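Appendix B, record 7
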Amino acid sequence: MLPDAMSSKKTSKSTQGMVWIPGGTFTMGSDEFPDARPVHAVTVDGFWMDEHEVTNADFERFVKATNYVTVSERPLNPADYPGVAANQLVPGSAVFTPPDQNVSLTNPLQWWTYVKGASWKHPGGPQTTISGREKWPVVHVSYEDAVAYARWSGKRLPTEAEWEFAAKGGKGNRIYYWGNELKPAGKWVANIYQGNFPDHNTAEDGFSNAAPVKSFSPNPYGVFDLDGNVWEWCADLYRPDYYSKSPTANPQGPTDSYDPDEPGTVKRVQRGGSFLCSDQYCIRYKAGSRGKGEVTSGSNNLGFRCVKEN
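Structure tokens (predicted):
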């Protein structure tokens, strides 16, 4: 049985390391993406948000306090993998593994590899560690893992409406969360992919992988890394048609999940894009766009941050 992540829950009501997001009404969504339509007005109440993504150091404190075991570290159930040899059922997670040549972008399995032993404390596989990477965002966290941490810390995951409101920084609709220019004043302002995806990352922004939190300037609310670096879990279940029926005040997401690409698979919304996003392949670091992920899965470009009420 897994430890109860609430058994050592923090009791502090401190908002240290968080910034106040004042709330208000904004225009949510994007006409550029079918699942982000229609663009619609949404009002959210004010809330506190972590100023940066949850780091390895943050998550390590949680694990030490609770003995929590993440999904990517747990033994696999043979019943879930019929026909797979028992010696192949080794815990692990997905790691971006660039090919050595240009490939078609139709099959992500050409650059994603299930790595046995990959987890939050071994982000590239069992031969890697987080030593010296305390300020990097924690990765390989499933939705369940993120919720467990949030509860322990006395917080919760943001709704995608809260996330987008914070990311827009009170500046209205723009192409990117930071503005209408990809490189303002000729400078990269977020950790995304440059070069030819997926085989040649020129790392013009200074990073070929995830970057330490706060490596780039904050947005007008004082929040860092809402764009690029690592995808961030939101609380909402994912449906591509949700915006057509979404409430206008503090939407919480649909009551069920549906992804026409994988019917029957439960998914939650992810936001912000990652260091693997570019206009060449994944353009969902653009303002108003949405991501999605199966709730038990993690990868080395997926993390989270938390929020809490006043």
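Remarks on this record: The chain has one domain: 18-308. Residues 1-8 have pLDDT under 50 and may be disordered.
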